[in-house]
Design a protein that fits this description.
Blueprint: E1 8-12, H1 17-28, E2 32-37, H2 40-51, E3 56-60, H3 66-79, E4 86-89, H4 104-132, E5 136-140, H5 153-173, E6 179-185, H6 207-219, E7 225-228, H7 232-241, H8 244-253, H9 265-276
Parallel strand pairs: 1-2, 1-4, 2-3, 4-5, 5-6, 6-7
The structure holds nicotinamide-adenine-dinucleotide.
Amino acid sequence: MDNIRGKTIVITGAARGIGYATAKALLARGARVVIGDRDVAVLDKAVTELARGGQATGYPLDVTDAESFAMFLDKARADGAGHIDVLINNAGVMPVGPFLEQSDQAIRTSVEVNFYGVLTGCRLVLPEMVKRHSGHIVNISSLAGMVAVPGQVVYAGTKFAVVGLSTAMADEFAPQGVAVSVVLPTFTNTELISGTATSSAQKPVQPEDIAAGVVKVLDKPAITHLSVPGPLRAVGAITQLLPPRARRWLSHKMGNDTVFLTFDANARADYERRAQSAVGVLETAPEQPSS
Ligand code: NAD
């Protein structure tokens, strides 16, 4: 049985980055893909591009707004066979920096998008999946959901939450015929890491590598946790068992103790601006501040 060909697969936050690469990979495998994003200008371009590779549609979506999410899913059902086979909760933001310098808005946005948005998506598709005794939810967390480092207090908190909710959900809904998986990417070359200098030990992977990971869990729904690259999950698990001094030594060795505290703020400014206030649908491109 092919879990991808001919299936209606919905991806949030897929106008760019990992979500976009995943949409492309799934179209190549014959899925009907429906993407959502709050950034309408980028979304429209993405849909035009994706539609060259197969059956792709896209609609504005704010994952922090349950009404917007429900309307988006209704459109996705209408584009498909009346139901959703797979939901990929990918939309996410990563404001970083010293915790005491994080604004209330950045903190709330991170929690709303990364945590509440995932819960909302799951609550909206689970009833139909349980009824059909079929379906798969894939939540995109991060290795930051296993390895928490300075400068990522809020982000790590939200990504640990996604790992936790996904584990509990996988085990609660398996008897009801619904699969739940969580994918934990390492540093990936998207705008999300702009301005950060990763060490040679932590060379970023490409969005296509994460897309291949998503394809893998769809092919093998029994996989509930997948890190990309694969071996890093074991490193994450070991890190959690280390005493503080050893953990900090390893973090320092990997360059992780400073990467999210000392970055190129200018190179990161555009990303931080959109990440810190990623609530609501953005109908037009934001005005660039005059220099
Ligand atoms: P990205 O910024 O390139 O893409 C994220 C997309 O989500 C954007 O198009 C953005 O407009 C959209 N989005 C943000 N808030 C939204 C909202 N409220 N409603 C709808 N859409 C919204 O980032 P990415 O690197 O592709 O990240 C995708 C996922 O992968 C995120 O959950 C991120 O935390 C996770 N991740 C990324 C990395 C990395 O290094 N890039 C590593 C681990 C995990």
